[in-house]
Batch of 3 targets.
Target 1
Amino acid sequence: MAWEWSHTHEGVAAACDNVHKLRRQELITILREWSAYDREKRAEADPGYRLPATTRGLFRLTFNPRRLVQETLADAVIERMTEHATCDNGGFDAHACPYGCHTVSFDGGSDAH
């Protein structure tokens, strides 16, 4: 179960700063999870939509992440996570991905998880 954000502006800003500290490959993985989440939601809403047969197909991106700079990847993750605005129980870590397996702290002095 996840909670909705109810943090100060400083806490949200710290979480966004912590996203910028993530490694490039982790940012790409998180964006692939958002892509998979979008496809799953579309499949739930549209019975005629077919999900890709493989997990690899499910995690395809519509853009080439190798051509994007680190800051652009981080900004894309921040945009999606702030739209979703969920965190762990207790409100300590913001979910950077839709599934809650990638998180960042709302604490400015902490590293991402």
Target 2
Amino acid sequence: MGQTMKRNLSKLIVFTAVVASAASLKAGVSPHETISATIDGSKITITYGRPYSIKPGTTEVRKIWGGLVPYGKVWRTGADAATVLTTEQSLVLGETTLPAGKYTLFTLPVENGTPKLIINKRTGQWGIPYDEKKEAENELARVDMKKETLDKDVDQFTMAIEPNPSGGGVLKMMWEKTQYLVTFTVKK
């Protein structure tokens, strides 16, 4: 294959990816992402849907916290299928030990008070609706989260796993001008 043909093929592939991405955004499809980090020797992975602040098919910016994501109701922590966390080693979040394995994460945001990260032992479920009575037996824990105000708006829901300067790690969730976070340590 000649150099010109390779260049044209490369341009076609990039163009197709851009068009497909734009079509997905226009259709309101939230892209999915898998993030991972190794903290104190343990690989931690999160797979989640990344919705945008902009209402699908429009230029309207939605109110996220207390709007699209109501306060006081369990949220799937992303879009579409429920968010999944996998850890190779046991983690300690607050007073809860999370054995190595796979879990579903939900969030209980509150306007005033302490937001909660809900760790559910059941995986493979769709993100909504969350029936708290039915899921009570599947919940491993509800862990306190810290809520912070960000300096800049985050247009697309973003999660991060980062090392904590004082040891262990931090799980972060950012959207709009709000960041929720929970620290954890790796159990040796």
Target 3
Amino acid sequence: MNIQSKVFDVTGWVTMAPGVQRRIIADGEKVMVVEIHVEAGASIKMHQHPHEQISHLKVGHGVYMVDGVDVALEEGESVVVPSNTPHSFVGVERCEILDVFSPPREDFRA
């Protein structure tokens, strides 16, 4: 078995919007894992992308709007956002999110 691994520097935080920061914590050929911190009241504006996305809320409480439907998430819950589906997020309280993207987000690598 041939196993390749990479060790990532997870200190590279990027500000996405006021009160919203992200960093790549794993980046593979077909999948990317991103940690996102959202302060209480901060938001990620409505957007869409060709990547399938799974968001897992590690800490906090927030509301996704996915294709016009509000999806409230508590700690430990996840939501799947299909490719090219409009979505946004608001942190009701401080949130820590793990986002998984397939394929990886080239725009996040820049």
